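Format notes (please read before filing issues)

Several people have asked whether sequences and structure tokens are stored in separate files. They are not. Every record keeps both together, in the order shown below: the sequence lines, then the token lines. Line labels are part of the format and must not be stripped during preprocessing.
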Amino acid sequence: MTNLLTIDDKMEWASYVQKAAEYDFYHTWHYHALETKVGAPILFVYQEQGDFIAFPLLKRAIPECDHYDLSSVYGYSGPFSNKKMEDLDDSLQENFKQAFLNFLTDEKYVSVFTRIHPFYKQQLLLEKFGGVHDNGLTVVIDLSQNIEDQRKKYRQSTMDAVRHAWKKGFVVREESGPEAIATFVSIYTETMERVGASDYYLFNEEYFSRILNTQEYDARLLTMYDGDTAICSTIVMLTNGIIQAHLIGTRTVYLQHSPSKFMADQISVLGRTLGMRYYNLGGGLGYKEDAVFKWKLGFTDLCMDFKSWRYVANPSMYQELLDKKEIDKNADIDFFPLYRYA
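Then the structure lines:
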């Protein structure tokens, strides 16, 4: 049996997530409700008796075309189930595959893109379609080790920044309320403008208020202070043993003090306090082994594979869309779907 939920089906969507063996906040109805400007959120569900496989995605219209494509929310989503992926019956996986392929054909979808969660073995299911793509690595701190052993793995410059913060008397506080959100927005917006981020990464106070206020996952706002001056702020998410800094910003005048290194250290402390197993720092920009990636390696040498699923459901239409853009499908461009490039 298949079922297609939309953003109007909040309770039913939430019930599937609650029954999942493995999920992150990226899978929730609430997080998808924040992404409606990107596309129309849907949850495709295939169910046999008590077992199900659910796949949250964003439906997007393709300009000047009567077809659509599917993408994922910002972050790691991918399919989830009431069982771990490695425990799913082969017959259930095959039947899900056929049902999903029929759905893609019937609803005129050209392609599907989703980031695969590095902690869950979603690729075992998606490999049955083909199109699983190696993107790189994501950096992880194992919070089962004590904080002293963790800090022994810090690069010298990382530990120096932590000690500098201690010496300066910097403190990290968990905050809430409109004033705290306004402070975060100010710091985050300053950061995004400094690095020349696209409009996609610019949000207003309403967005941050909504992302923080939900019962579907645990979200917290942390701000670092030098005396009474807020110098660095982040929103952290905690779900099923994983803590991660979803968004972070630093005041320009304090960059020389590397406050984000102390913030990362303190997030790992909070994670342990709240019973988290891993702190996922993420990868580099575009998941390349760039300066951001190397910065994160200053905390740990533990990395996990990060993959994405890039599936062409309608090859002839995909090629037609490329031809319209005069794009060579074999071009050395790491972008999917390629017809949306530039």
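For reference, the curators noted about this record: The mean pLDDT is 94. The CA atoms of residues 219 and 237 lie 5 Å apart.
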